[in-house]
UniProtKB/TrEMBL annotation:
One of its GO terms (molecular function) is acyltransferase activity. It comes from Marinagarivorans cellulosilyticus. SUPFAM superfamilies: Glycerol-3-phosphate (1)-acyltransferase (SSF69593). Residues 99-212 form the Phospholipid/glycerol acyltransferase domain. This is Phospholipid/glycerol acyltransferase domain-containing protein. The lineage of its organism: Bacteria, Pseudomonadati, Pseudomonadota, Gammaproteobacteria, Cellvibrionales. Transmembrane segments: none annotated. One of its GO terms (biological process) is D-galacturonate catabolic process.
Length: 398
């Protein structure tokens, strides 16, 4: 709902043209635009055929453009585009994960739209894993929130919006611009859920939790509530969004060393300045790096009992921590840091952690730790150990 000169007005999708995903009737034109984007074609060549791009650059571009044209010539819908993506994602997951497990989906209704709010460890793969397990279990695919700071190239924006991403304006500078952008985002998300009946994904915070401490930024909840009609109770509005907390855990984080480096610099110098295109490198590393076992856990939808922003944020934190499935690497790191094995359950099988059952995993983790520069190892260990500490803190609070 928008408030105009003559009172409240209800938006149509055209009000969100600058942030919404592309529609079916925009797919062909967008694909043709991508085919004619030399920067995009060059990026494809570097990714798929790096040797060819270096040794035979003049030939690489037309060859790649021709191959891509054949690949997409019959694609004329968002669903068709996502079917192409699905085949590549399946191959990628087969190569970069040893096992993907899921829990909690059986309690959700496939006919209902949900707002999935997850912890945030990986820029691209967090929503990809949520989307994947939903798709594999017969749920509708997601509309995914993505910051405009990651869309510095026109072809990146086109690709993301073809894949049902909607844009979060993080480039606004003045308080007025920020509020206007937040109101539009809030209205778009409400419209998507209530009118389009679409599933949505957004992270619990802006930016990854590089220290693995999954704490919701209350500003995310405040943004969601901006579209609430004045006469509607806060709890009722939150319940209408069908918020479902999601916990994603990775056995190995492909960006662990880079995160450890950044955390160390922040601890020693007070701040960290990203290099140009560093986010792009993190995305590539997250997609192509080995992740081992991955678990996606879906929590329970929120009810009208949550009457404040703080209550919603606390409920998110609690469910995300409670439902987080610990990996052997988490327990091994905790043991190294504290000198004793944690008394916790772990894995999709929910078994009590016992050191003697994980000798091979311990050797592999210790080799990974040894490969990390000595100055960063303390932070490296904390990245893996912190989820155990969060679990234990929650247990003690109970």
């Amino acid at each position: 709902m928008f408030v105009g000169f003559f009172g409240p007005t209800y938006p149509t999708m055209s009000d969100f043209d600058d942030i919404r995903p592309y529609n079916d009737d925009e797919v062909r034109a967008t694909l043709l635009r991508l085919l004619n984007d030399n920067e995009f074609i060059d990026a494809i060549v570097r990714l798929k055929r790096p040797l060819l791009s270096r040794l035979m650059a003049p030939l690489a571009r037309p060859l790649a453009r021709s191959a891509l044209h054949k690949e997409i010539r019959d694609v004329d819908s968002v669903e068709g585009f996502q079917a192409k993506i699905e085949s590549y994602l399946a191959k990628n997951l087969n190569e970069t994960t040893s096992k993907i497990t899921v829990s909690g989906l059986e309690a959700l209704d496939k006919t209902k739209p949900y707002l999935f709010i997850s912890n945030h460890r990986d820029i691209a793969m967090d929503p990809a894993f949520v989307n994947w397990v939903l798709y594999q279990n017969g749920f509708k695919t997601l509309r995914i929130a993505i910051g405009d700071n990651l869309l510095t190239k026109p072809f990146a924006s086109d690709l993301m919006r073809l894949n049902k991403c909607f844009i979060v304006n993080r480039s606004a500078t003045s308080p007025r611009e920020k509020l206007k952008a937040a109101k539009k985002l809030s209205a778009y998300m409400h419209h998507s859920l209530t009118q389009d009946k679409s599933n949505l994904w957004i992270a619990q915070r802006e930016g990854r939790a590089k220290d693995s401490l999954d704490i919701t930024n209350p500003a995310i909840i405040s943004m969601l509530a901006l579209n609430k009609p004045k006469q509607e109770a806060f709890g009722d509005y939150i319940a209408s969004l069908n918020i479902v907390p999601v916990s994603i855990s990775y056995e190995y984080d492909p960006c662990d060393e880079a995160k450890a480096r950044e955390l160390t610099i922040v601890a020693e110098q007070g701040a960290y300045e990203k290099a140009e295109h560093e986010d792009v490198q993190s995305i590539a590393r997250g997609i192509t790096g080995q992740k081992g076992r991955v678990h996606v856990s879906f929590g329970s939808p929120f009810t009208a009992e949550l009457e404040s922003v703080e209550a919603v944020a606390a409920a998110l934190d609690r469910q995300i921590t409670e439902n987080y499935v610990l990996q052997p690497t988490n327990c091994i790191a905790h043991t190294i840091v504290h000198g004793c094995a944690p008394n916790v359950v772990m894995g999709a099988e929910v078994k009590l952690y016992k050191e003697q059952d994980h000798k091979a995993a311990m050797a592999e983790f210790e080799a990974r730790l040894k490969a990390c520069p000595t100055a960063w190892r303390e932070r490296f260990l904390s990245i893996y150990a912190n989820p155990v500490a969060a679990k234990l803190a929650l247990q003690h609070a109970e």
